[in-house]
Queue: 4 jobs
Job 1
Amino acid sequence: MNNINNIMDISWDNTKISILGGGKSGIAAAKLGRYMGAEIFISDSNDSIETIEKMRKFDYEAGTHSKKVLDSDLVIISPGIPDSIPIITECKYENMHIVSEIEFASWFTTSPILALTGSNGKTTTVNLLHDMCISDGKNSFLGGNVDIPFSENVLWELKSEIINAVHVLELSSFQLEHIRSFSPVIAGLLNISEDHMDRYKDIHDYSSNKIKLTENMDASGWIIYNGDDPILENAFQKQEHTRIFSMQNHPKSQFKLNASKIYSGTSDNPNILFKLNETKLKGSHNIQNILAAATMAHSFGISLKAIREAIINFKPIPHRLEWIGNIKGVDYFNDSKATNMAATLAAIKSFDKQLIVIMGGMDKGHTDFSQLTPSLVNRVKHIFTYGQAGKSIKEQINSTIKVTYAEEFKAAVLQASEQSNPGDIILLSPACASFDQFNNYEERGNMFINIFKNLELEL
């Protein structure tokens, strides 16, 4: 067995790697490991034809995690696999090295890493940060929890010998569970709210995995965090080399906000970054995303000119409070990515009145949907729920707002359309995962768009 305690001394030609999970990140790690000369074995509990097809270029097993996984020097665990499965327990008993795909990929790049985590807003923020880097002339690789594995980008970097590269990463708590030396030069933390309570013991367990992002940073790195978030403020207020973004104009925040603009300097002598009417991003939560990206970029040395250009030219990400059109005076917004209550709350707060909201899907862990109630009053006129969590949402909210349940997603959308009037806004913001009726939130959002298009054709 090869000793991998010192990464720099590893002879990859003599190293056996077992990879748990044959999805995108697992296959990307396998390709990177093979490129470095390692012997690869992939193990996936799924034995579908699609999964086997992805793994067939490597030594693999499907439908089980056998003891063959233990015949390795290193185990790479895919983010969707929890520590609670028996094979991980066995690996830990054998004192095996277990790392995430993010950790593994980081061993093979010396380019700076700008990494972001948080409960909501990550994808918009990292895409904006990526655009800021490109606008400043950097060769930016966007990866991580955005369907582009970090390993895939690192392998491309190695093969192309690209210069002036920077890696911009969106990272989930799952991806951060098994890091050990991963060290970004800029670490951003957007916010912490309850999510994935079906995987974590409590909010502390969840937040501690988010905060792992910063645990290996050296003195030259910057931690950028949301000064309005009590969990993050408590974690970092006494830590050195931090910078803050804030919607409440925290005294230490890099950029300030007023009713019309974001600026640096003082209110008496402002250096205007941009005026709020110049961005296509809607809602206060997106202003927070802009502040986070701008602070991270500025701390990395990106020019204010490049930051401004990226903000002005940025188009909203699909399925994230995305306006898809108007039928008979009713606006339709697709926020399918809102898979937890905090994201849905942010979406609802982006509108003032005449909202019809579609919620439901698979609850991610005994969610108290009644916490939405104060924000619904005088904003939301009707909620349509669907799916596995639909009845629970109705029971928890029905006393305050009119709620209608339909088992199928399509039926809920069509009923919302039938009950709407000119001037209304129909908002798909589910507050739940999609897996009861869809493979992912994109599929759910795309069905919403297709229903809208069919309604258009009927006019």
Job 2
Amino acid sequence: MTNHENTQVDPVAKVTVELHLGDNLEVLSSLADSSFALIYVDPPFNTGKQQRLERISVVRDEAGERKGFGGHTYRTETRSSLAYDDTFDDYLAFLRPRLVHARRLMTDTGSFFCHLDPREVHYAKVLCDQVFGRSCFMGEIIWAYDFGGRSKKRWPQKHDTILWYVADPKNYTFNYSAMERIPYMAPGLVGKEKAARGKTPTDVWWHTIVPTNGRERTGYPTQKPLGVLRRIVNVHSLPGDRVLDFFAGSGTTGEAAASAGRNAVLIDRNPESLAVMQQRLASFAPTVRIHEGDGDAIVP
């Protein structure tokens, strides 16, 4: 294992973010071997449904259907946001060539993270063992959250699984000093000094989902929290490293990387996704290059 002390840098001094619009399999084939210190992907979960985010707002309208504050009448508006189909006939056949590229693109001390839910993660684990090697599996992170509806027919599903692989299990980047500490659940049992310092997280991460009306929300369905990505980026890469996300969605990986002084390459086939990322990352990265497919950069 390679332990690195956290290096102080100006987070956005020399950061470059590349946004690629197109089929990630085609774009991945154009990228150079061993060029990324960290690869994180949040692929479609194969839910068999269309993933869509709807926003509901109440607007004052005297012809509306609801009575509200002050005796005024209001109407309800539902607006749909970005959407994508999350259905695959052969999910592992879809993932395999992309994972093969991910292994090729990792540096010698690099890490790969694959974020899935219980529906497909066990099958993906076997596939990742084949591609990366069972000895290169470092463990799984359970992201647990407590939000949303609760089934009355089974234990409510409130976690995702993030698989972690490395190129070399004897030599990989792990910034222990960059790991943020969390409060003790029973601070009175550990003394004032330890309670003030906090403890390091385990492989179970309690973190809320992206709040519906929070500042972080971009309107992209299945958006993952910035706090989860920041932890992965800060611990598993160094300032100046290149970070890759080829299911980039709303660009959370890009923001986590750019704000921490890492360079990022983000790939998505949805033009609306690219527009969200371009707007989101403009203030974090002084240089944002946009590419059409695997071709040359186009002017934003």
Job 3
Amino acid sequence: MDILDWAQKVNYAVTVCDAEANIIYMNEASRQTNSHGEDICGRNLKDCHSPQSWETIRRLLATGESNIYTISKKGREKLIYQTPWHKEDGTLGGLVETSMVIPPDAPHFNRG
């Protein structure tokens, strides 16, 4: 079984890039969300993002930090989570981005 087989079975977008920001994996939800169903693996994220977004991606790849935010797109709220992944030797392998719809009636719990 391929390590990313699970990602084809979830109902949110999963996109993975390598340390040079080349797209190396997109699940079907990612292809539908980000490239109108087209498989753009092999392309660089710089080609698909605004200069401001590209600077964020470069920073994440340089620092290994995560980036979490919400957006409104096509009338839906989404949670975007970008986080590094690491190779077996511990070096930064690239980034994983998940993008999921936040239902308008999603409950919020304070568990402090």
Job 4
Amino acid sequence: MKSIFPDPITQLPKADIPLEGLTAYLSQAVTHQTLYMQFEKTVELPEHEHADQIGFILEGKIDLIIAGEKRTYTKGDRYHIPAGIKHSAKIYAGYADITVFMQPDRYNVKE
């Protein structure tokens, strides 16, 4: 799959996220992480929780269930999952976003 991200993004380190068909580039900061993610395959994420998450959808579609409420987000949408709120997701093939995790150690660099 051809990346939708320009060279400065694709030259960032890849994030170690064990999801088949996901390419994720990691920008590390002291207080948070920004991920540039592109999904080649549809994946379902089971219910979980963590620090605040903010997403900006660039392409495709994601179904999020946040605190029991289901919403569908598509290109141009944005979402916020507050810290400690249980959520799950179905991310469809072709989806791409920029996601900010307000947690500086959420993911490691892929070796």
